């Protein structure tokens, strides 16, 4: 700050201006604010090419602008050349080459669909004006990336609609009953709450809730694929029409990254793959873009809550020390890989592959994955491990990522196998009555309870057993069957024949809820999900019968 020397016989500055004390204070406050603004502009503004033009020579500013304006996604020709299951780092390497070429003033090379390397036209390479080079060729316009849906559909092993087998009268009657249940639920939702997120069945009105950041129609989007597969054509068209005309993504509210991803993005992606209707793909991609700011953390681990309008994100208030939840940031991989597949934009894949990178780098206690991870430091916050709530779908997405990659994502398979071995070693227990269950782990101390959410693990282990080493296949099938049996017992031993939110194995009690806070059922699907996987793997009719028992009650 400039200091003015006080001259003899002259009043001090700013007293020389004849200012009173309050005016002096306001003047100094204004001056300090101005200086703060100037320094902030110099050091705190983002790295902008427009800002650089004020301070850099013209040539340096032009180079900086060229680097900043590079496309986020690879050009169509280069994207087409990438193998379907290329390394996740491939798009990043391509973009690095483009940036390096821009810095050197050379035109970047692109790989054609045939595999030969072609030079970009000089005008496209950003040659400097004023040089003696030949006149620039007309700028070529690249065709926008387009996912080849027809090619995808032609490679499916089975038709999307229809059935294969199961034509015996009892099976047909049960199938029809399930279809009637779905239609009953849809008709009442349509009558009392259409366009809202949920139906309140007792008061017969709609409910929006605070989980989806102002998005509406969660029931509609979540039910799209079910309506289509069940061949409820009229109902599906009603849902599709609502998505086309009324599904507004321009909202400004606090949303769960996890819930929006699995229900909205997942529902839209699935329906696009089933139908090929562009509206579902476009909505999924637009919504996926709105989720990206949640990853703007020091580690790249996303926070759990995001404002879909402003892009600001933060952790759940109940999460320990501002941590992110394993089941939430670990349940993005499938959807985000497909967002890249459909858009040609590698940013979605890069975000979830970075999550893998962080998880592989960090030390895991006893080989287990705790539920809470700091998005700032990349360290575990608590050593609480659960295959149920807070952890569950992370493990499921590992084995499904491997299967979805045509069994090429060996990193996902290794992570799954290592995690399952640690779970079996430290968490899988057998009760005095012979029931196999998965306990929770709190800093080395076991809590002998199993949540309803953990009952998905029977199906998951069965799904992975088919791909296990030959000497472990039958072992994992048996383990999956034992866990599924335990979850069935939690239903069979309740008064209503519906399973509780959690059941315990202590004080002589087995597979029963001993606490009032755990004695409720909220339409969770995990037990029936495991029945389905076990039926598909073993074709043991008891699993179909167990599923029918749930329908009847």
Automatic annotation (TrEMBL):
<dbReference type="GO" id="GO:0070062">
    <property type="term" value="C:extracellular exosome"/>
</dbReference>
<dbReference type="InterPro" id="IPR036026">
    <property type="entry name" value="Seven-hairpin_glycosidases"/>
</dbReference>
<keyword id="KW-0472">Membrane</keyword>
<feature type="active site">
    <location>
        <position position="392"/>
    </location>
</feature>
<dbReference type="GO" id="GO:0005783">
    <property type="term" value="C:endoplasmic reticulum"/>
</dbReference>
<feature type="disulfide bond">
    <location>
        <begin position="455"/>
        <end position="487"/>
    </location>
</feature>
<feature type="region of interest" description="Disordered">
    <location>
        <begin position="105"/>
        <end position="144"/>
    </location>
</feature>
<keyword id="KW-0326">Glycosidase</keyword>
<keyword id="KW-1015">Disulfide bond</keyword>
<feature type="active site" description="Proton donor">
    <location>
        <position position="259"/>
    </location>
</feature>
<feature type="transmembrane region" description="Helical">
    <location>
        <begin position="25"/>
        <end position="45"/>
    </location>
</feature>
<keyword id="KW-1133">Transmembrane helix</keyword>
<dbReference type="GO" id="GO:0005975">
    <property type="term" value="P:carbohydrate metabolic process"/>
</dbReference>
<feature type="compositionally biased region" description="Low complexity">
    <location>
        <begin position="75"/>
        <end position="91"/>
    </location>
</feature>
<dbReference type="GO" id="GO:0004571">
    <property type="term" value="F:mannosyl-oligosaccharide 1,2-alpha-mannosidase activity"/>
</dbReference>
<keyword id="KW-0106">Calcium</keyword>
<keyword id="KW-0735">Signal-anchor</keyword>
<dbReference type="GO" id="GO:0000139">
    <property type="term" value="C:Golgi membrane"/>
</dbReference>
<dbReference type="InterPro" id="IPR050749">
    <property type="entry name" value="Glycosyl_Hydrolase_47"/>
</dbReference>
<dbReference type="InterPro" id="IPR012341">
    <property type="entry name" value="6hp_glycosidase-like_sf"/>
</dbReference>
<comment type="similarity">
    <text>Belongs to the glycosyl hydrolase 47 family.</text>
</comment>
<keyword id="KW-0812">Transmembrane</keyword>
<dbReference type="GO" id="GO:0005509">
    <property type="term" value="F:calcium ion binding"/>
</dbReference>
<keyword id="KW-0325">Glycoprotein</keyword>
<dbReference type="GO" id="GO:0006491">
    <property type="term" value="P:N-glycan processing"/>
</dbReference>
<keyword id="KW-0479">Metal-binding</keyword>
<keyword id="KW-0333">Golgi apparatus</keyword>
<dbReference type="Pfam" id="PF01532">
    <property type="entry name" value="Glyco_hydro_47"/>
</dbReference>
<feature type="region of interest" description="Disordered">
    <location>
        <begin position="66"/>
        <end position="92"/>
    </location>
</feature>
<comment type="pathway">
    <text>Protein modification; protein glycosylation.</text>
</comment>
<feature type="active site">
    <location>
        <position position="526"/>
    </location>
</feature>
<feature type="active site" description="Proton donor">
    <location>
        <position position="501"/>
    </location>
</feature>
<keyword id="KW-0378">Hydrolase</keyword>
<protein>
    <recommendedName>
        <fullName>alpha-1,2-Mannosidase</fullName>
        <ecNumber>3.2.1.-</ecNumber>
    </recommendedName>
</protein>
<dbReference type="InterPro" id="IPR001382">
    <property type="entry name" value="Glyco_hydro_47"/>
</dbReference>
């Amino acid at each position: 700050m400039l200091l003015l020397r006080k001259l003899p016989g002259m009043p001090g500055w700013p007293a020389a201006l004849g200012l009173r004390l309050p005016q002096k204070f306001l003047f100094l406050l204004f001056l300090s604010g101005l200086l703060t603004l100037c320094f902030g502009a110099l050091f705190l503004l983002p790295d902008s090419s427009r800002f650089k033009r004020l301070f850099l020579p013209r040539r340096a500013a032009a180079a900086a602008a060229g680097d900043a304006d590079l496309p986020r996604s690879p050009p169509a020709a280069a994207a087409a050349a990438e193998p379907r299951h290329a390394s996740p780092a491939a798009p990043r390497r391509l973009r690095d080459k483009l940036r390096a070429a821009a810095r050197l003033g050379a035109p970047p090379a692109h790989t054609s669909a045939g595999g030969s390397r072609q030079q970009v036209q000089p005008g496209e390479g950003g040659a400097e004006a004023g040089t003696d080079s030949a006149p620039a060729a007309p700028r070529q316009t690249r065709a926008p990336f387009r996912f080849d849906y027809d090619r995808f559909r032609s490679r499916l092993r089975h038709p999307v609609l229809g059935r294969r087998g199961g034509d015996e009268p009892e099976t047909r009657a049960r199938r029809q009953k399930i279809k009637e249940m779905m239609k009953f639920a849809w008709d009442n939702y349509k009558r009392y709450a259409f366009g809202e997120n949920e139906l309140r069945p007792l008061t017969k009105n709609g409910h929006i809730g605070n989980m989806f950041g102002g998005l509406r129609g969660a029931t509609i989007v979540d039910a799209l694929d079910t309506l289509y597969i069940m061949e409820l054509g009229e109902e599906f068209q009603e849902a599709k029409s609502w998505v086309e005309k009324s599904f507004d993504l321009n909202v400004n509210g606090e949303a769960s990254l996890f819930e929006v991803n699995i229900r909205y993005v997942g529902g839209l992606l699935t329906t696009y793959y089933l139908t090929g209707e562009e509206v579902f793909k476009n909505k999924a991609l637009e919504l996926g873009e709105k989720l990206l700011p949640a990853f703007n953390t020091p580690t790249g681990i996303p926070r759990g809550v995001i404002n879909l309008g402003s892009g600001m994100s933060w952790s759940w208030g109940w999460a320990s020390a501002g941590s992110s939840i394993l089941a939430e940031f670990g349940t993005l991989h499938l959807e985000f890989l497909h967002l890249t597949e459909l858009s040609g934009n590698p940013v979605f894949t890069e975000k979830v592959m970075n999550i893998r990178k962080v998880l592989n780098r960090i030390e895991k206690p006893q080989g287990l994955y705790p539920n809470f991870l700091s998005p700032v430091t990349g360290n575990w916050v608590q050593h609480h491990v659960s295959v149920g709530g807070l952890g569950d779908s992370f493990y499921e997405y590992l084995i499904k990522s491997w299967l979805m990659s045509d069994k090429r994502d060996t990193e996902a398979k290794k992570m799954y196998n290592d995690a399952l071995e640690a779970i079996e070693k430290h968490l899988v227990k057998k009760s005095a009555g012979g029931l196999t269950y998965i306990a929770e782990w709190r800093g080395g101390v076991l809590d002998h309870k199993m949540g309803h959410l953990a009952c998905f693990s029977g199906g998951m282990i069965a799904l992975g057993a088919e791909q296990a080493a030959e000497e472990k296949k039958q072992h994992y099938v048996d383990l999956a069957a034992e866990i599924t049996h335990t979850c069935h017992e939690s239903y069979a031993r309740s008064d209503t024949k519906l399973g509780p939110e959690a059941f315990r194995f202590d004080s002589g009690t087995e597979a029963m809820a001993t606490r009032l806070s755990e004695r409720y059922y909220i339409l969770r699907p995990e037990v029936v999900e495991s029945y389905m996987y076990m039926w598909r793997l073993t074709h043991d009719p008891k699993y179909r019968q167990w599923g029918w028992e749930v329908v009847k009650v």
